[in-house]
Every structure is written in C-alpha cells, then in structure tokens.
C-alpha cells in the first residue's frame, strides 16, 4: 500500500523516489497500474509540477525511446514529507539517446533485484546508483588501486544467514559503437585487478558481517555478454581464466533479468546463483 494519498499517483512518486527515472512501461511493470491510468496520473502530476519528463524525438532508424519521468524539487519535498525519509531530486536529467538506453537498463536491473529480494523474503535492498550524488560526485565512487571508478550502482542485500552481500553493478549497451567499442573492457579492468585480491572489498568497505564483494555485469544483448566473457580474460595484464578471483564476476544479458537470482554466466563457462 502506498504511503502517499491516491494509489496510482502515490506509487508513481514512490517509484521515482527509489529509481530516480522511470518510463511508463517500467511503471506498469512495477504494478503501479494499467497503462491508460498511469498516463493520466502522470499528466496530473506534471500539471501539479511534482514531476517532469524528457521526450525523445528520434527518426525510425534510431529507434523510439520512451519518455523518462523524474521528481521535481517540489515533488521530492512532497514525497519526503509523506514517507519521512529525505528524497533528493535528480540532477543530470535530460540526456542523449545513447545514455538513455544505458539508464533504462540500469533501472531495469535495479527493479529486477528488488523483485528477486521480495520473492526470496530478503530485506529490501539498499540501492546506490550513479544517478544519486554526494557533493559534486556520484555516490557510487569506488577508490580502486590507481583509479577512482564510478560504478553504475552498488547493491547491498542481506541473505537468510544474516550476511551482508555487496554487489557492484556495471551495465553496458551495444548502442555504444554498435557493440564494437572496447569501452566496457577498459571499464571492467580495474575491477578485475582489484577483485583478484582484497582491494575490492577494502574499497567497498565490506562490513564485519559481510561476504566478499561481487561484480554484476549486465549487457543489453547476448552477443555483447558473450564478447565480454570471451575477450576480457584475454586482454593483456588480465589473470588466467582459472584464477579463483574470476568467481566474483557474474554476467547476464538484459532478457535474462527475469531470473535475477539465478543463471549468472561466469568466465569459467558455468552458471551460478546469487545467495539468498
């Protein structure tokens, strides 16, 4: 039940407070309501200046991006007063199309994580995403040896045994250079090197009741997922495939997110489940 008066508007506002940006399709998947009702309530919230949106107008060759909605400062204050928790409006709101694909997949992954936690009776995950800021930097900064990395998100869950599980989320889309770019490989390398020892856990500030941190890599296509699995261990300076450190790294394609807790691909070629 929503804490905010008005079932559909309340769920919309609470969803935006948690995930920062949402499309109509994402709101429907969250169970906010049917598409027609969601559209009407979004317009009402825009009229009340509680939310705003970005409309993408692209030609047929580029694909049609859905509108993205977010809380205005007024909307953030309204939600914060209703739920009794501070809510910050997003800063970097309007973005280009390539970034929009990435942002949507990050949010899809966070939604899938929440669904998995709910289905397995875990505590509500603590989510930090690059769309949230502390001072002049995203709150997902990770001080790795020789590099200050910005993770797409950092997720904290608590398993049935009471252990804290910390996951770094990295999301990659083939819209960047049609999947041929080496950008994902270069971005992952510092995490790989830190994950082969204790440096990653130290950078993530794993609590006393925590287990070794893991890296979740989500790709928009199966082809990109398989390319990273194949090429990442082959890059100069990377440890051999049989190194135990690779067990921290789990890969999925976007269309596999419905089974968030299971069937993560590994460099070794097998599949594993996340502890619940």
* Order of helical and strand elements: HHHEEHHEEEEEEEHHEHEEE
- Give the terminus-to-terminus CA distance: 25 Å
Task: Provide mean pLDDT, rounded.
Answer: 91
In terms of DSSP E residues, the strand content is: 15-25%
Helix content: 25-40%
- By secondary-structure content and strand pairing, the structural class works out as alpha+beta
pLDDT below 50 for ≥5 consecutive residues: which ranges? Answer: none
InterPro entries: Replic_Relax (IPR025855)
Pfam families: Replic_Relax (PF13814)
Keywords: Plasmid
Describe, in short, the structure shown.
The chain is an alpha+beta fold. 34% of the residues lie in helices and 20% in strands.
Describe this structure in words.
The protein is an alpha+beta fold. The protein folds into two domains: 7-93, Winged helix-like DNA-binding domain superfamily/Winged helix DNA-binding domain (Arc Repressor Mutant, subunit A); 99-272. 34% of the residues lie in helices and 20% in strands. It contains eight helices and 13 strands. The strands form five sheets. A five-stranded mixed beta sheet has the order 3-8-9-10-11, with helices on both faces. The protein has a two-stranded antiparallel sheet with strand order 1-2. A hairpin with a 5-residue loop joins strand 12 and strand 13 (271-272). The longest helix is centred in the middle third of the chain and has 23 residues, at 97-119. The mean pLDDT is 91. InterPro entries: Replic_Relax. Pfam families: Replic_Relax (PF13814). Keywords: Plasmid.
